[in-house]
Amino acid sequence: MKLKLLINRVVPCLAVIMAFALVSVVAQETVEQAAASTNASAPGLYVDGELYRADEQPIVRNGILYIPLTYNLMDLLDAELETQVAGGKMRATVITAQAQLEYTEGETLYIARDQQRELVEPAIVFSGNMTVPFESFFEDLDCTVVYGDNRIDVTTPTGLTQMEKLPGGKTKIEAQEEIISEEVEEVLKTVIGYTYENKLTYENVKVSGDESQSSMEPKSDFYNDFSIRFLGQIRNGYELQSSLRTRSTTDDDQKHGEVKTFFITMSKNKVKYSVYDLFPKITRYTFKNYRLQGVQYERTNNLFKYTIMMGKTPKKLRTSRYNRYVQGYRLENDVAGDAMLGLGYVDVKDTGVLQGTNRLDNQVLSLNGKWKKTALSLDAETALSKTKYNYGQNINAKAKWAEFQCRVPDMKLKTSYERTGSEFVSETSFFTPGRREFSALLNRKIGRRVVVGGGYKSIVMRGEDRLVFPLQLNMIPLKQRSSFRLTAARNYDKTRGTSGTRFTDRRKLNLKDRIGTAKVRVDFDRKAQKNTAGVQDYRTMQRYRVDTPLTKKLSVNLQFRKERRTGAANPLNRFYKSKFSYEIGDWTEASVGLERYYNGTSNNRTALTTSYKQIDIYNDREMSIEYKFFNYRDYNNNQIRLMYSFLK
Description:
- By secondary structure, this protein is mainly beta.
- Helix content is 6%, strand content 60%.
- The protein starts with a helix and ends with a strand.
């Protein structure tokens, strides 16, 4: 049995689920390793128990799972999305009660919780949406990501979206073809198999009219992404996994050629070696999805699991102009089948000649434990940090966190507590220093068609005391019409600080139904803010969406959004969109869309988009052509994108 059989089995699954990536069912694997794993199933993405449905699904680029930042996703996360184009690049800001994230197209550096961090891969614009690496996005929002046999479950920390969903709300993922047959598994035990993928992309942007008014820069560039993966067993009995990803381009805004990721992993019995690009995920305060270039060694015996990591950060961080070397040690003990204790130590050192910015040495000692018994679970961690800056000052600080959950058939209770010292530093994790938070969220099912939830959250940070009270009602109003669902939510936020007190009251109403073959969704959102000086600010939004097939092969998507703000220079925004998609043949689709955006300024635009996509599941090839035309008052933008990829 040739390895081509394996590839011919994998690609049909990729085509069926379109943008979903193959990820590993093991939570400790990185997304990149999961995408390369050949025994992974095709999971669905569930956010707080609800299957994520949108026109733009998660995608895989360069072996990394990406999530498009769409309004559908923002609704599930109870977040706000703001986008703008400046300097020819899209910038996107995601605002939630937990954090504010800022991404820039084509850049790996981004802002999260007022700190500069680095993505494993740069943010990209895909189908008009800012698209970012999957795991870091949800972890920045304090979400919990759990991998199951055929699904990825994302649990959000906010009471507005963490309510249990009603029975019947989960639709089964269509049965997928088995990826690896028993014969192929036998082959992989004795030989090394490999696959390689090459993607060629051409992008062309032209500006006509008053180019000085356009935020787009004319360009015409080629991009070539190449990846190769190895999997199998070598002669000494070690199981081998390896991946190499490279990129070359003519775009002067990016590196013309670079190795994006390279790693080698070998495992045998209870020993595992990993070399070069590492993405260890250990605890909340140590190695929280921190990228490292070096070596990692793991060994498991009857009592303990040992982990040793040594290396350096792959690039000089903009916040530190020095080479940064890291070493970490981890010891775990499974006290019983339902409990775990772990002790970790991380040492980070900056080296090099002083360059005017703070050079530091940072050590963190962490102790964490987990316990789970039937419906109860407890997860806790405490950490100590010692930081020495180049000017000789030593600072010690503490951090602690605990989370308790109780889940029974008709009720879920979740409480959490976190307190990080204002001087606490851990260079291999991300968090908010000087934050003290306590939250309690309770969801309760009433009968079979109603779920109610409420909670309390107290946050003390940067001299401000914040209280949040979320409430939500989720119900099926009509017993005979299960497709009609109603969600009503209210979030009351009171913040007191040195500048006074401000109040934020947000109310949401969501209606979903299926009328014949049409899926209908209506959203109403009202956000009111007021401070002690009497200044008030209101924002109201209406959103309507209809998806329906017109014929057996022709379908249409209609959207309308209207937003009004008080006190703004341009108080009214309107957005219209219609998109027609036609199925030409198996795995071949053509679409045309028309958009209109209006806010009473020179940014008013009319847009026309056309695309053609074809997937050849027999020869493992994919091709797409996309053209966009934007008509502004003073200028026009024309964009064309051609992509061709093949997998062997």
